[in-house]
Amino acid sequence: MNLYDLFVKPYESYDSLQIMLEASGAIFGILSVFFSIKKNIWVYPTGIISTLIYVYLLFNAGLLGDCMINVYYTVMSIYGWVLWARNSEDHIHVEVTWATRKEWIHASILFVMSLALVTLIYYYKPYIDNQFSMEGVSLGLYHLDWANWMDVFTTSIFLAGMWLMAKQRIESWIFWIIGDLICIPMMIFKGLGITSVQYLVFTIMAILGYVSWKKSFKEKKVQ
């Protein structure tokens, strides 16, 4: 696969609106990560805009299963926005800390529940993508390749990470780093070169976020 096949060919069939929306979704996604590094509540408005753009694009593409997963992301972002708003003294920034053992257990339960839910969505994906019609459709997981299974795994990682970030926990960045690293080769395999570069940027930003939050916690503890 050459650079043309990776970065240009997948977009030849796109119209200008689709390209503009996908670029906007990526930009708002990067802005969301930037604001999260700064512990700024704008992480959620920008993130919600990004996920809603992808909901629209995936719905129009008939990929209703993937669309539902992004709706799930949007709901989790609203949950995080509410928590950060409650815990922010200036209504913009929040303080961060390490997760407790109880929170790790909750995050693990959420991860397992997300695995089950996303797998269930993929099980019914042929039915969902066929406009909720069983005509000519067979349910099951037979249609999944390794990238789809990794998608199930990374979606669950990201959702657990989103929950920990909503709680302002430093470990949330570890989930983002792992998930982003996995997504880089997965997107290349899917022929989404631009998206793979986006996840490379996300990985670098997540590492910076982890270092920044850890440093902020240490400085707060010294005061």
UniProtKB/TrEMBL annotation:
Keywords: Cell membrane, Membrane, Transmembrane, Transmembrane helix, Transport. Pfam families: NMN_transporter. It is found in: Cell membrane. This is Nicotinamide riboside transporter PnuC. It is a multi-pass membrane protein. InterPro entries: NMN_transpt_PnuC. It comes from the Bacteria. The keyword Coiled coil does not apply. It comes from Chryseobacterium candidae. Required for nicotinamide riboside transport across the inner membrane. Belongs to the nicotinamide ribonucleoside (NR) uptake permease (TC 4.B.1) family. The chain crosses the membrane at residues 16-34, 41-57, 63-84, 104-124, 146-166, 173-190, 196-213. Its main location: membrane.
